[in-house]
Target: Exocyst complex component 1
Amino acid sequence: INTGYINRDIFTPNDERLLGIVNVCKAGKKKKNCFLCATVTTERPVQVKVVKVKKSDKGDFYKRQQTWELRDLTEVDAKDASKENPEFDLHFEKVYRWVASSTAEKNSFISCIWKLNQRYLRKKVEFVNVSSQLLEESVPSGESQSVAGGDEDALDEYQELSTREEQDIESMMVTCEYAISNAEAFAEKLFKELQVLDGANIQSIMASEKQVNILMQLLDEALGEVDTIEGKLSSYEEMLQSVKEQMDQISQSNRLIQISNTNNGKLLDEIQFLVNYMDLSKGHIRALQEGDLTSPKGIEACINASEALLQCMNVALRPGHEKLMAVNQQQLLFAELRDTFARRLTNHLNNVFVHQGHDQSSTLSQHTAELTLPKHSPLHRDLLRYAKLMEWLKNTHREKYEGLSRTYVEYMSKLYEREIKEFFEVAKIKMAGTSKDPKGKFGKRYDSHVKLNMNYACLHGSSGKLTGSTSSLNKLTVQGSNSRRSQSSSLLDMGNMSASDLDVADRTKFDKIFEQVLSELEPLCLAEQDFISKFFKLQQHLTVPEAEDFDGSLPSKKPPQAEHKHSLSSEKDIVRLMMNKIFQSIETELNSLIALGDKIDSFHSLYMLVKMSHHVWTAENVDPASYLSTTLGNVLVTVKRNFDKCIVSSAFFVVVVDITKFKSG
Model:
């Protein structure tokens, strides 16, 4: 194998060295010789490669055909370790099968691969069917690894001449023309010149002995100065050491002073926080203990004091504040002031509720003569001054707040019950006065005539819609009567009177009385509902009991299961329940009044239906869930039922009259 040409033409220009080569051909194919070469790069880091080289068909030169990195090699298979076999496999990204020109070349190449792997890669490449003796011989004990019969370390130590060195050698050889023809004479001449140079160097050194002595003397003096400086430096170091210790002490003192100042600043902040947020002025304490709850100024002072107390009690204490004795004492003082003021406020408002219930009873006689209800706006105006105090009581003393609500509902329900009862008594007396002879000789004719007129008015569409004024209803009645006059002249002759002459005046008076009753009840209920919402501060969603369990107070604490079972959605439900308790007699009295009006004249049900419908519609526009809207809606159902009964009975009466007329004809 001509390795010199291959190395010169292919590897040397690429800074590579050829370390192992084998002449191979692919197994199982037509014999085409090529070479597998193991090379390393001359530059660091060293790269080890396996290169496939093929001789060109057109000339005597070689070219690189394929290259593999040795680190990609995973397995070397020598096929048979005991017999001579030139075949072997190399496992890269795939298996390459080769046949060497001889077994010796194969073994030499495999040994080279093993050495390169051990020297540069330290990679565990599996060598299969390779004689262990071949691998052991490749690494002699105590010697460096050799590659392809050459010493690798010797190759590593070889250094090529630089360009300048080559030029110097060439110039020297030019001056000595016989350097190439007579190397011994050239070497002898060089040796003599070297001796001359050595002698000159020695003489130069001896001539500079005096200067050397002077230099040594200067060095001795310099060493003395160095010793002196070292002594001074040592003394300075001792002084600096003492200064350092003092500075450390000063620094430690400053650090302690800074910590002390920081702690004092934090302590001052904590004290200022407690003083600013947990200090109640003497004026506020005096207002809470003995403030006047009857005068406007006294009430305003109590409101300000209660708000300040609530802020002090609700302040968010920082960690550790609860362990301070002063904080505990302030909290005890706040709790005592809260209880004292809550007790004073509760007693005062209870007395106001009780006195109001008794005082209003004396004014009822003034409204007996006329059909009006007493106005409670002065009471509401006076009590609304305490609304903020009620809110404070609601947030601080829930039990006393609920007790006040029960007391208010209890006394006001009694007061309203008396007022409403007397009001409806007057209304009933006035209604009874509208009927001239409800039980006399014209009673039966009166009722039958009314039913007949209503029947014709309804059946023939002359009555129109159920809404309208009183005059329109009267006109409808007369028109219904006139439209059927020719068909029921015998019935009209039985009474010897006209319906318009007999009924219109009484019905108009009844309509005015019923409208007066509703007009008096509506502002009364709305004013009371508005007062309850404002006075008791029912603006939040709360848990309340069901209507049958309501005793006039806000809901008390119950087990979670009961609280979930009896919960309502909003404060409107609470207000409506309180209104039901206070005005529990309104619906009963209205039904009694409606029954009386229907008994006097069944045609009154039409008037009441129109009025009730109008007032229900008005109340629903104001608040669909209010007590007034609910109560009037229930009463409207009763009025509608009475009207339906009137229509049915009238229709039945007309049928009977027609049958009688038919038989008599």
Q: What stands out?
A: Residues 209-277 form the longest helix (69 residues). The mean pLDDT is 75. The chain has 22 helices and ten strands.
